[in-house]
Design brief:
Number of helices: 15
Bound molecules: N-(aminocarbonyl)-beta-alanine, zinc ion
CATH superfamily of the domain at 54-375: Metal-dependent hydrolases
CATH class of the domain at 54-375: Alpha Beta
Strand content: 15-25%
Structural class: alpha/beta
Length: 479
């Protein structure tokens, strides 16, 4: 099937220009002026609209088994919701239980994801350590297209990685040419503060942000950064929610360290007053970690995105409905952590970023798509409207308006953290691997049409570092 996108302005990370786009066989085959529509092609009239790389959400958790329940959004509904909002690829997480063989976990997640309607890939979490983990990390990189390993520095007693695990895994990732990622919160401190708050009688969601102060995040981010510095491995810090972790990243980048930072649309736009909402269901619906912060932190995060010290935006889409959140009615520590947003990330960032003048359109493309593709080594297959790239494209109508609501969205969760937000600018059409899957407000997706995207290791960068390290080998003093 071929698709002809006619008369739009192509917006890539580096430039914008008027051009038609032809997609055939799942790829972009031509970008240029006054092209002819291939015979039988589906034509999208993009006059007055922007033609951009489909969004990449590098941080989602579809159907994640977590905190005694399973996230309500599965790979089919979640990737479909993404397409309705212009996101054409997700990078989700394989999260082995401690002691679970990591290849078994990887195979389990691959099976769950077969029903995806859009492309996907996986970071693999390292939640425990032994020789088998060391070996299986190699198999994942060499045989399964995994180039990123995740570490949860929080969630003590469950999936938390202590310093010993971080050191072992970071050094193995360096050997393999992979990048490491961290959820940066000091899990010991969080555990202690949760206990103290609960014993003082603070049992509701208002205690959640108090138990996870920004200092806990800043400390963990800095610790991960310094461990990565010593072991020379590139690091990606997920869901930065506060000034403290941003400052740690900025400092390291200024020192020349290869550190990247992600920010969630929710952390840019929602503040911590939500946890003091009178209605438990509303407050609990916002319980996620790290928590939403005060506006001082939001301002810092926007500046981080504008300055380039934060490179990507994500959602951490991890949905739990009210009946699931109710598990923590009497104890905030038991509220399943997670919120949604995969459908809304692009439009809320456009509205609050581009329409407000904080981001240019090209910067918007960078932070919603191209930077993630580059950091996770799938550029320009993804993240670019150019000949040879996958035909993952969003046609963006800058004049369209809508009010975000669970009544009209496609996400499989009963609460939308952006509920009631009025936005201007959204996806009029989404093309996924050359198929028009979103048009005229309707999804036309096929279960299982999404494909697993292999991400190769970062050979040349690491080779250079290893060479440098050989030259700088320490020499024993002869006595
Ligand atoms: O609260 C969150 N973020 N839930 C999903 C797991 C994680 O920490 O990313
Ligand atoms: Zn996390
Ligand atoms: Zn997450």
């Amino acid at each position: 099937m071929s698709v002809f996108i006619k008369g739009g302005t192509v917006v890539n990370a580096d430039r914008s220009h008027r051009a038609d786009v032809v997609c055939d066989g799942g790829n972009i085959v031509a970008v240029g002026n006054d092209l002819d529509a291939p015979k039988g092609a589906t034509v999208i009239d993009a006059g007055g609209q922007y033609v951009m790389p489909g969004g990449i959400d590098p941080h989602t958790h579809m159907q994640l088994p977590f905190m005694g329940t399973v996230a309500s959004e599965d790979f089919e509904s979640g990737t479909a919701a993404g397409l309705a909002g212009g996101t054409t690829m997700i990078i989700d997480f394989v999260i082995p239980s401690p002691q679970q063989n990591i290849l078994d976990a990887y195979r389990q997640w691959r099976e769950w994801a077969e029903k995806s309607v859009a492309d996907y890939s996986f970071h693999v979490a390292i939640t425990w350590w032994d020789d088998s983990v060391y070996k299986d990390m190699g198999t994942l990189v060499h045989e399964h297209g995994v180039n990123s390993f995740k570490h949860f520095m929080a969630y003590k007693g469950a999936i938390m990685a202590d310093d010993e695990i971080l050191v072992n895994s970071f050094s193995r990732a360096f050997e393999l040419g992979a990048i490491v990622t961290v959820h940066a919160e000091n899990g010991e401190l969080v555990y202690r503060l949760q206990k103290e708050l609960f014993e003082k009688g603070l049992t509701g969601p208002e205690a959640h942000p108090l138990s996870r102060p920004p200092e806990c995040e800043g400390e963990a981010a800095n610790r991960a950064i310094r461990i990565a510095e010593v072991l020379k491995v590139p690091l990606y810090v997920v869901h930065n929610s506060c000034r403290q972790s941003l400052e740690a990243i900025t400092r390291a980048r200024n020192e020349g360290q290869r550190v990247f930072g992600e920010v969630l649309a929710g952390h840019l736009l929602i503040d911590d007053s939500v946890y003091r909402h009178k209605d438990f269901d509303v407050a609990a619906a916002h319980v996620m970690s790290p928590p939403f912060r005060s506006t001082e932190h939001q301002d810092a995060l926007w500046r981080g995105l504008q300055s380039g010290n934060l490179q990507t935006t994500a959602t951490d889409h991890c949905c739990f409905c009210a009946d699931q959140k109710a598990a923590g009615k009497d104890d905030f520590r038991l509220i399943p952590n997670g919120t949604g947003g995969v459908e809304n990330r692009m439009e809320v960032l456009w509205h609050h970023g581009v329409n407000s003048g904080k981001l240019t359109m090209n910067e918007f493309v960078r932070v919603t798509s191209s930077n993630a593709a580059q950091i996770f080594n799938i550029y320009p297959q993804k993240g670019s409207v150019s000949v040879g790239a996958d035909a993952d494209i969003v046609v963006w109508d800058p004049e369209a308006t809508k009010t975000i609501s669970t009544k009209t969205d496609h996400q499989n969760v009963d609460y939308n953290i952006f509920e009631g937000m009025k936005i201007k600018g959204c996806a009029s059409h989404t093309v996924s691997r050359g198929n028009v899957v979103w048009a005229d407000g309707k999804l036309d997706v096929e279960r299982g049409a999404g494909r697993y995207v292999n991400r190769p290791p970062f050979a040349s960068y690491y080779d250079a570092l290893k060479l440098q390290a050989q030259h700088a080998e320490p020499v024993a003093v002869k006595r």
